[in-house]
Design goal:
- Helix content is 16%, strand content 34%.
- The protein has 327 residues and is α+β, with helices and mostly antiparallel strands.
- The chain folds into 2 domains: 163 residues, Glutaredoxin (3-Layer(aba) Sandwich), CATH 3.40.30; 141 residues, Jelly Rolls, CATH 2.60.120.260.
- Strands 10, 11, 12, 13, 14, 15, 16, 17, 18, 19 and 20 form an 11-stranded antiparallel sheet that branches. A 7-stranded mixed sheet has the order 2-9-8-4-5-6-3, with helices on one face. Strands 1-7 form a two-stranded antiparallel sheet.
- The chain is globular.
Length: 327
C-alpha cells in the first residue's frame, strides 16, 4: 500500500483489510482539479440521485493497479443503473503530475470512467485521505456510506454498491485466498531510504560512486556504480550501474522513468533471468526497453514464493523510484 509516509508498509496487514461502514457524512466537493479526463467537469451536487464511488489512486501504485479490474467491471456492470465511479488521481511522484502520462495510463488499463487529476491534493485533503488506494462509496443523497482502504474486500464493496442500487446481494462462491507475506515496498530516494545495506551510504543531490556488495540482509538494497540520488529516486549516471535487492516474492516490479537506447536487464541469484520468468514488459531476449514513465514488471516466478537476490542493470539516464512485490 502507498501512504504519504513509510507508515503504510508498517501496518500493511491491517490496511489490506481496513474497511468500514461509517456514519453518513456529506461527501466533500471536488476542489482545485487540474484536469478532468474521460469527462466534463463534475460536481458532487450534480451527481445526487446516483451512487458514486470515489477512488483515490495513482498510476504507479501497484496496489491501485491491482484494484482496477474490479473497478472497471463494476463500472461496466452498473453504469446504466445509476452508478458512477470517479477516479481521483493524486500523484505520489512528480512524473505523475503529467496529463499525458495519466492519459497513457488510462488507455493502458482500460479505464472509461471519469478521472480527476488532483495534482495539488486539495480534494485528497477534503476527504482527510491518507492512503493509496482508498475508496469512498456515496449514496444518492451525497452522503459517504462506506470506506475501504487498500486492496481486497471486493465482494463487500460490490454488495454495498448493490444495496444502494436496491439490487440483491451477491454470494461468495469461494473462499478469498489470503495474501502471503512478501517483501514490503522499497523506496530508493533519500527521503524514504530505509532499506539500504550498510555498504550503501547515500549522498543526496550529487553523483557518487557506490560499491554495494553481496550478500544482502533480507529486504535490503544496494547501489553499484555512479548514481545521482534525489529525494524520491536514484538516477543511473554511468555505463555499469546496478541495483541489488534481496526479496521474498513471486513477482517483482519497479517504478522507472527516463529514456535510453540501451536495455534494462535482470539477473537472479547470479544468473541471467530465465526465459520462463520473462514479463510482458520484456522482449524475446529478456531485455526491457523504456517506453513510458511507469511501473514495469521485472520478473514473474509464477507463484513460487522464494527469497532471491536480484541484480538490476540500469543504463545511464534511467531513474528508479521504488520496488514493489507480489505473489
Amino acid at each position: 500500500m502507498r501512504a504519504l509516509a513509510l507508515l503504510m508498509t508498517l501496518i500493511l496487514p491491517f490496511v489490506a483489510e481496513c474497511r468500514a461502514a461509517i456514519a453518513p457524512n456529506k461527501a466533500p466537493e471536488f476542489k482545485d482539479i487540474t484536469a478532468w479526463l474521460n469527462s466534463e467537469p463534475l460536481l458532487m451536487e450534480n451527481l445526487k440521485g446516483r451512487v458514486v464511488l470515489i477512488d483515490f489512486w495513482s498510476y504507479s501504485c501497484i496496489n491501485c493497479l491491482r484494484t482496477l479490474p474490479y473497478l472497471n467491471r463494476w463500472y461496466s456492470t452498473y453504469k446504466n443503473k445509476g452508478f458512477v465511479i470517479v477516479g481521483v488521481h493524486s500523484p505520489e511522484f512528480q512524473f505523475e503530475h503529467s496529463k499525458e502520462n495519466v492519459l497513457f495510463a488510462i488507455k493502458r488499463y482500460g479505464i472509461h470512467y471519469p478521472v480527476a487529476m488532483d495534482n495539488h491534493f486539495t480534494t485528497w485533503r477534503s476527504y482527510s485521505n491518507r492512503f493509496w488506494p482508498t475508496k469512498y462509496l456515496i449514496d444518492q443523497e451525497g452522503r459517504i456510506r462506506f470506506r475501504h482502504i487498500g486492496e481486497g474486500g471486493y465482494l463487500e464493496m460490490e454488495n454495498a454498491i448493490r444495496k444502494l442500487l436496491d439490487l440483491a446481494p451477491l454470494k461468495e462462491t469461494q473462499a478469498t485466498p489470503k495474501r502471503k507475506k512478501t517483501t514490503p515496498e522499497i523506496y530508493l530516494g533519500s527521503r524514504r531510504a530505509d532499506n539500504y545495506s550498510n555498504t550503501t551510504v547515500l549522498k543526496p543531490n550529487a553523483i557518487s560512486l557506490y560499491k554495494g556488495t553481496l550478500p544482502l540482509q533480507d529486504d535490503d538494497v544496494a547501489l553499484v556504480g555512479l548514481w545521482r540520488v534525489a529525494p524520491d529516486s536514484v538516477t543511473s549516471a554511468g555505463t555499469n550501474c546496478r541495483i541489488l535487492v534481496s526479496c521474498l516474492a513471486s513477482k517483482v516490479h519497479m517504478v522507472l522513468t527516463g529514456a535510453s537506447p540501451d536495455p534494462i536487464t535482470v539477473w537472479v541469484d547470479g544468473k541471467p533471468l530465465s526465459d520462463k520468468h520473462y514479463t510482458q514488459d520484456m522482449d524475446a531476449e529478456g531485455q526491457l526497453f523504456m517506453d513510458d514513465d511507469r511501473k514495469y514488471d521485472l520478473a514473474d516466478f509464477h507463484g513460487e514464493m522464494k527469497r532471491r537476490t536480484l541484480i538490476i542493470k540500469i543504463p545511464a539516464g534511467i531513474s528508479a523510484y521504488t520496488f514493489t512485490f507480489g505473489q
